[in-house]
Write a structure and sequence with these properties.
The longest helix is centred in the middle third of the chain and has 35 residues. Strand 1 and strand 2 form a beta hairpin. 54% of the residues are buried. This protein has 2 domains: 446 residues, no CATH class; 85 residues. It contains 29 helices and 2 strands. The protein has a two-stranded antiparallel ribbon. Helix 8 packs parallel to helix 18. Helices cover 74% and strands 1% of the residues. The termini are far apart.
Amino acid sequence: MKATGGESRYRHLPGTLGIVIKTLLCILCLVAILYVLGVAGLLGLYFYVQQYFGLMFALSLTVGFLIVPGAKASARDKLPWYDALFALISLIVSAYIVFIYPRASFNIGVLMPERIIMGGIMILLGLELSRRLFGWALVAVAIVLLLYARYTYLVPGILGGRGVSWQYLFTFLYLSSGGILGLVANVVFTMVLAFIFFGDVVFHTGGGKVITDFALAALGRFRGGPAKVAVVASSMFGTISGSPVANVLTTGTITIPLMKSIGYRPQVAGAIEAVASTGGLIMPPVMGAAAFVMAELLGISYAEVAIGAVIPAVFFYLGVFIQVDLVAARTGLKGLSREQLPSLRRVVSKGWAFAVPIVVLIYSLFILGIPAAKAAVYSAGAFLVVGAFRKETRAGLRKLLTVFESTGRLVVEMAAIAIIAGVAIGIIGITGVGITFSRALVELAGGNLFLLLLLTAVASMILGMGMNATATYIIVALLTAPALVQLGISELAAHMFVFYFGTMSMITPPICVAVYPASVLAGSPIMRTGFEAVKIGIIAYLAAFLFVLDPSLLLIGSPAEIALAAARGVIAVIFVGFAMQGYLFSPIGMLSRILTGLGAIALATPNSYIVNIIGAGVIAAVASWEWTRRRARRKAALSTD
């Protein structure tokens, strides 16, 4: 995936056309906010939700072809005739849904020439816009699925079937709630848009700088301070932005040079930023679009997903923080001087208003139980009100229009994903390939749960290579999660498992999209940076196996079970960090590293107290041995002096 939110990738057209585009982007955002708040109902306006989706697609696709050039070398200040034509066709095929849906809802299964043609064009437009925005990986998956649906009868073995005609396929995907106008469109044009708006309100009024300054003031002076700043700032930014690539490009421009300036190797600096930025997708209270889709697929509230994700996310960032500190300890890296740091008191006094929307969001979601989209809009509104009392945080009309435009651009990207994801969901539903693929995985694993988890993890990372996080989750969840459920894993744990490994594909070589921009900013080799990222983010890979085998880590179970599992996990995370970085009190040898790592895994292993005790014993023995060796070396050094 390319950099989400980057300005240079868009056209900036002058004159009347530029004003029209900005107006459409603002309308796109405003219409969605009014819909989320239920203003239409208050005014007595009633319509099918699919008509709303059609309107949003009309605005998104039309603007998409006006602002997104077809190639990197294309001019950014001119509009080619073919893109003007694409924009006009996008408006027609999407607006058609708005006008005919009340009648079409009664006979969606009827094949009519105009519906078939419109459906085929809509799919092609979605493929082309996705190619421009995200490259070929996502488009290739969609094309393979389309060909599979049509020619299933040519596929041998368990994945074979009857096949579907192009006429039925285009009509179903175009108009059915099981296709483009279904679940993903609902998530994108309500929850995702609302949270993008919330994030843009915060950051366009100075929230990004406040987050970075706060992290610098609080942690910059400690050993390896800039790396710890990267972890904290990127986690805070990433949990709102929902895009690892955008996160890297935003916070990484500050943190990576700072890390290099105090002695972190370029590949380590890039890896730390890439891992910390990717972790924002799994960190509550806002986890990116995929978490909202998960809630819809599971039929539960977003709050339940976010609450379940808390302990694994804490494990992840604790593991990253520990390793960052150990790298600094092992190589003798210091923090920044007091002169290089902002005043914590000044940052807090100037930036306290930015805590208000977060508090409102958490209270609305987890205490009042308000739907996620409304909670995000309310939180954004709360900040606009509180921020109005200070000049630095006040959002005047011009700044608010900038927020609307920025939100609109990101929604254009998400609309392209919604079409591709709608195609994928529709085809998986029509062909039943999700069930058959899961059955094939179970058969291949021979009913062995651990082997099935390994196969599912590998499949999730392969399917996620080079793709957007939301699209990755949707495809892997529909294809692989049912296999885990089939062997007795809870639905939340199964979906969280594939979500984790789909997300980790972003830092896993060879196609590690979050690592690419980080390596560019760091001036380091991509593959070397990618392998460092895997090393630093190792806890995410391990935590996914742990919470599948022990649901108490997803806050499912009694308080005592949850507390015990969490305590074991925290200790294990710390010692895995020691093993990965080869530092425990002082540098340690390979044998001690291996024993420490195995002991930590044994300690965290669920449902086996004997294994836990053995693991704790191994850890204690290694720690005691290394402490004794360290004291002996110190005594020897003192006697020499």
